[in-house]
Amino acid sequence: MQARLTAFVPDHAAFTRSLGPGDRLRIGRADDCGLRLEHPSISRAHAELFARDGRWQLVDLHSKNGSFVEGARIDSAVIDTSCWLRFGDVHCEFALLDGAAAEADARRRSERRLTATACTAHLDAIARNDSADDASGQSLPDASLRAVAELAGCSRGFLLVDTHGRYRVLAALALEPSQMIGREFAGSLSAVTRAIEQRRPVVFNDIGGDAWPGACASVVQGGLRTLVCLPLLDGDRVLGAIYADRREPGPPLTTLDLELLEAFAERTALWLIAHRAREDLAMVPPTPLDWNSILGERMLET
Questions:
Q1: Which of these, 97, 88, 109, 102, lies nearest to 27 by C-alpha position?
Q2: Confidence band (pLDDT; 50, 70, 90) for 292?
Q3: Cβ(35)–Cβ(7) under 8 Å?
Q4: Is 54 left (phi over 0), alpha (psi -120 to 50) or beta?
Q5: CA 215 to chain centroid
Q6: How does pLDDT run across 143-174, given as a tens digit for each residue?
Q7: Which of 24, 102, 120, 243 has the smallest number of Cβ neighbours within 10 A?
Q8: Does residue 2 surpass a pLDDT of 60?
């Protein structure tokens, strides 16, 4: 019987592992673990999950904070149905998959890559246009935001850009300014702040009632099921951020999703860098030492 393990680490995309007969998955913080979970509650070698005699078994490897099946701490357990596991403070969904479900899983991954490829081609087409608009008048910031929202399965979002030390909204999707200052947005704004300050993506996946520590509690109270915030970087410099969220149920954001989303963030950052360079050049007044003047004088000498 095939299976899938999805690990939900706070502030990170979900880690997924597909398992088949004969597989043995070690879970922990050590580099040699098949599922490496960087979280303080996880031991270096925390637990092992493997199939034996057609049934899945979970064995705790004398971890400090324990392994749990549906909330009950175990030393070892046979798992013969889909259920929730917990390693330390990290919740994991264990799902048994029949042949059709395994094929659907693989098809979904393939479709997401195809969608990402199509969105990338669309962004590149807009970026090649000097006006930064395609034939329909859509700007690259708008297209980038919509691509991120589509891949993340989100229904709303915004794109922030640093303009002379102050952030302003360059594009928005299904959001009005008044919706971005209310109580429901408090937690998600803190996620944006963390993404900018720490220069790394921040991801939240609601797993059904367990409020994550810290600022994410306000995200749960606001009814959000998923959010992602991607910083736009030029080296160590933060150019802005792309944020998207949803209230509707849906599949979690995984490390594969985050990989695709970060590619869009990189493209948007490159466009911002190029766009600002053009703006800076346009603001430089002509001088006797500009390149056209020098080139013109040399041509006169010849």
A1: 88
A2: low
A3: yes
A4: left
A5: 18
A6: 899 999 988 999 999 999 988 888 888 888 98
A7: 24
A8: yes
Alpha-helix residue ranges (DSSP H) falling in the chain: 99-128, 140-152, 186-198, 216-221, 255-283, 291-301
Say how many C-beta atoms besides its own lie within 10 A of residue 36's C-beta.
Answer: 16
Q: What is the dihedral of CA 123, 126, 127, 129, to 10 degrees?
A: 170
| Cβ neighbours around 213 below 10 Å, total | 9
Name the token pair of 276.
């600002």
| Distance from C-alpha of 259 to C-alpha of 256, rounded to nearest angstrom | 5
The Cα-based distances of 287 to 195, 277, 284, 294, 298 in angstroms read 41, 18, 9, 10, 16
Residues 20 and 5 sit within 8 Å (Cβ to Cβ) = no
**Which of 216, 275, 266 lies closest to 242 in space, CA to CA?**
266
pLDDT in tens, 36-87: 999 999 999 999 999 988 899 999 999 999 999 999 999 999 999 999 999 9
How far, CA to CA in Å, does 120 sit from each of 140, 143, 171? Answer: 11, 10, 18
Q: Is the torsion defined by CA of 254, 256, 261, 262 positive or negative?
A: positive
Check: CB of residue 51 under 8 Å from CB of residue 68: no
Q: How many CB atoms lie under 10 A from the CB of residue 70?
A: 13
pLDDT tens for each residue of 244-261: 999 888 888 999 899 989
Q: How confident is the model at residue 290 (pLDDT cuts 50, 70, 90)?
A: very low
The rounded distance, in Å, linking the Cα atoms of 75 and 73 is 7
pLDDT tens digits along 16-38? 998 988 899 999 999 999 999 99
As a whole number of angstroms, the distance between CA 162 and CA 275 comes to: 13
Residues in contact with 133: Cβ distance below 8 Å, sequence separation at least 6, in sequence order: 126, 139
What's the CA gap between 27 and 35, in Å, rounded? 5
